[in-house]
Amino acid sequence: MGEIRRLVLDTLKPLEPTIIEMADELSDLGGIAAVNISIYEIDRKVENAKITIEGENISYPRVLDRIQELGGTIHSIDEVVAGSKIIDDSATLQD
């Protein structure tokens, strides 16, 4: 079975914990080498965040559980890379 190497998640999170704390919590999970969180919309009580996770063997159920423990929800999975290496998107005529 191929390991998940990258996840890009569209999430909703409360203002607390901060994205620094959330990135730290997620990066502590096994199989994760890097976490990038970008806020693209802020409301009075919540933030919409894009979370990009890369690693050797990411466990989506553990990521989901940790995000929920921190008060967040996943709106959608926007990208998944699995296998023995990471492939970046190539430009196509649709782009």
Question: Would you kindly provide a written description of the structure presented here, covering whatever features stand out?
Answer:
The chain is an alpha+beta fold. It has one domain (4-76): Alpha-Beta Plaits, CATH 3.30.70.1340. Helix content is 20%, strand content 44%. It is built from 2 helices and 4 strands, in the order E-H-E-E-H-E.
Task: Offer a concise description of the structure.
The protein has 95 residues and is an alpha+beta fold.
CATH class: Alpha Beta
**Could you give the distance between the termini?**
31 Å
Largest sheet composition: 4 strands, antiparallel
How many beta-strand elements? 4
Question: Strand content of the residues, in percent?
Answer: 35-45%
Total helical segments: 2
Mean pLDDT, all residues: 93
Evaluate the radius of gyration: 14 Å
